Amino acid sequence: MPFNFEDNIKNATVLLQEVAAELDTDDMNKAGRIFRAVLHAMRDRLPVPEAVHFASQLPVFWKGIYFDQYDLNKVPVRIRDAHEWVNYIRSKNAFAANNDFQQDEEITAAFRSVFQVLERNMNDGQLQKAKESLQQDIQELLAA
């Protein structure tokens, strides 16, 4: 079976466009930075087997971004509460956080937006496992 680069690029682009639409932005670079920050935060919070299963449902391009700078020796990261979670997502967008995230509420909204896109594009069971790995007050950020 041949590897079709065009289809992989298309799948990645469609997913990014969905994220941008949820974030209500036309800036694809900003949407990409935010998507990457949330993916990296989720990845780092999950135990390794769950992180790998989570990634298996992402388009090839996003799998590469998801695993970029992944350090198996430093996961899962302990996050004690929603405030720490928000700051962790901010840290994953370190170079542009001041532009992308002016307020904590923007990070919370970005987390919720990315999760909504993932809900539409991933297997419910795998996403539910990832959600359940988060503390209750972090899960509540998704319901707000």
UniProtKB/TrEMBL annotation:
Gene3D superfamilies listed in its UniProt record = Uncharacterized conserved protein DUF2267
What is the superkingdom listed in this entry's lineage? Bacteria
Extract the InterPro entries matched here: DUF2267, DUF2267_sf
Q: What is this protein called?
A: DUF2267 domain-containing protein
